[in-house]
Amino acid sequence: xxxxxxxxxxxxxxxxxxxxxxxxxxxxxxxxxxxxxxxxxxxxxxxxxxxxxxxxxxxxxxxxxxxxxxxxxxxxxxxxxxxxxxxxxxxxxxxxxxxxxxxxxxxxxxxxxxxxxxxxxxxxxxxxxxxxxxxxxxxxxxxxxxxxxxxxxxxxxxxxxxxxxxxxxxxxxxxxxxxxxxxxxxxxxxxxxxxxxxxxxxxxxxxxxxxxxxxxxxxxxxxxxxxxxxxxxxxxxxxxxxxxxxxxxxxxxxxxxxxxxxxxxxxxxxxxxxxxxxxxxxxxxxxxxxxxxxxxxxxxxxxxxxxxxxxxxxxxxxxxxxxxxxxxxxxxxxxxxxxxxxxxxxxxxxxxxxxxxxxxxxxxxxxxxxxxxxxxxxxxxxxxxxxxxxxxxxxxxxxxxxxxxxxxxxxxxxxxxxxxxxxxxxxxxxxxxxxxxxxxxxxxxxxxxxxxxxxxxxxxxxxxxxxxxxxxxxxxxxxxxxxxxxxxxxxxxxxxxxxxxxxxxxxxxxxxxxxxxxxxxxxxxxxxxxxxxxxxxxxxxxxxxxxxxxxxxxxxxxxxxxxxxxxxxxxxxxxxxxxxxxxxxxxxxxxxxxxxxxxxxxxx
Length: 604
What we know:
About 55% of the residues lie in helices and about 5% in strands. The chain is mainly α. It has a domain at about 330-575: Rossmann fold.
């Protein structure tokens, strides 16, 4: 397995915490062919005649011939639906260019056939012509405005063109139109999760659970949505129900373990150990169960047992991945080379907007905590972990080169040649909508530490806040979290240490080449020790006045959190995570030695 990466630039494209967002147990792709959807649409929009197929295989009325019977029309409609389904499957098999002329020919005759329109959308997407895909999806919605799947398709296309707010509106429309359609609701719930609309997703999942009671996948989806919304007791109840129905699926055990601190009187270690002794055939399920055991034993203070399960699961996870940390380290070195002091002395002025507040850093360093503090201010809306900025860079590189195929050796060089004022304009326009017209929004993608220079070039008035934490606490917190493919360096000490050193060196570079004070460094330990003092400092940096509710962000900020810290941010600031690594000092000794050898400071 490989981590999703941008093809056109050096910067990772995955949303880092996607791996812990919980499986929805629903289809993650739209269906091949529309079948009944076509027939309903034709009936509703008066398109019955357009169901007739084309060419030699279809029955069409020619001048002077007898009109086709109803049965002939229905047979032709079914054949056209089947053709469209075959086109879609062919595109997904890599035959987009070959099938394009045939789909164009049929669409010229039947421009409102939903299956053919979907085939064209998938062709445009395969060609990475995302604007063309949006235009075709808009034709589909115009042809069948009451069909939920048409709105879902348009929403999914709009997500690729960074029009997140429009996308969410169409997906919400699909939720309203889906009524009791199990398939449509399943797909809608998936896309609501992707747009981080946890409240709406929960409503859809509850409807699904009513239509299909005791489905463990839907129950897990409900648990995940409840977790994001801070309804942690309900989340645990739904996890328990899912486990009772599907005890061999390890994911619910993993989610449940993180919903609260486990205690000697209330934990699941005996249940989890028994599950392992019985045998777990699915390796993925075993990994989830062992990560759950590592978390629960850590809560109980049993470091040896915790670390044994953690190391076994981490080693297995790493073996499943095709990854070389040296590629990421080379990228960081190239970034420093091309985005040097000379670059910033030559760059043209960027877009003047001061709306964005970027929160960056290594994962598990307090980025979500600071996001919740700032996000509780009345003039700020948090948009969560966005890949919008790096995706705009990728799009710019492809346009600059005139190709979707960008040689890896040229990616960083090409990003240094982009029109960053234009990228700043596109970025702000894509994120203009906010629920209460707040003047500022938060973009909390930790990986944006790679993009600090481009962000400064594009948006010189945007605020950038870097979270810092004790190196050993940072590395241990990353190591113990199951991130899936999002942070592939996190599963071995060697790669984790190397990546952390690269991160520190790159951040030192940004502080050196950008104007003094451009990046506000906030230490996690300082926030824990003096939340109000650090909150005042952060708000002042953002140009925001003081508001008392930020000290009780866990009460005042009701936004969903879809990060690995979704459960923790519902609590007041706590000190138990400071120096947590000391509990595992002997186990982490090799990691500490690697960091010391690289002359990383602050290890004691």
